[in-house]
Amino acid sequence: MGTVISLQERRLARRSRVGAPRGARPRATLFFDLGSPHTYLAAERADRLFARLEWLPASADALHATQLTEQEMRVVSDRALLLGLPFVWPEEPLHAVREAMRVASLAAERGCGSAFVLAASRLAFCGGFDIDDPEILAEAAAAAGIGLRETLAAARDVGRDGAIEDAGRLLLAAGAVRLPALRVGRTLFCGEDRLLEAAAAARAAV
Fold first, then answer.
1. H-helix or E-strand containing 65?
2. Which strands sit side by side in the sheet containing 187-190, from one edge to the other?
3. What is the mean pLDDT of the chain?
4. pLDDT tens for residues 84-127?
5. Is 99 within 8 Å of 18 (Cβ atoms)?
6. What residue spans define the domains of the chain?
7. CATH superfamily of 26-205
């Protein structure tokens, strides 16, 4: 069975990287949509594989990748089993979680994107909760160190939608066909099943 990441361990690891050179650029960027179960599968492993990873929300709508067929749902469930990760489908049908994505945008700005994505995706795909529900969203944000007032303000900030949608369109123009997508240098790796390949490319670039 796989090992589930501890949020406390992640916070400590982030603190241990404070001594990195000032202005050090991330070795890779992970583009995600919280409405996708593939984001959860990636979030549980990504920070272990990359020394420095930037997390950026991107709309899956731009890639026309928001609808899951029954066959694709079985693939996701089988993939979670293979990775040894707990997994349940949310009670409500999957939808564009706009409020959660806006808070993810704030988390990315503050450098705590990984903690927020991990907490939110666990609530969605381990607990089956609707992460656009204000109480559930506040719980995910608290795990990333974001206060309630800031969370609710970001969730209502429609001005954040443009950057999220633009990120999706730019990925589509670059040839992306699904999320999450990892950019290492000028190379794009699409799908959580390419995490290892992307991590190897990041190490080779160093």
1. none
2. 53-57, 28-32, 181-184, 187-190
3. 86
4. 999 999 877 777 899 999 999 999 999 999 999 999 999 999 99
5. no
6. 26-205
7. Glutaredoxin (3.40.30.10)
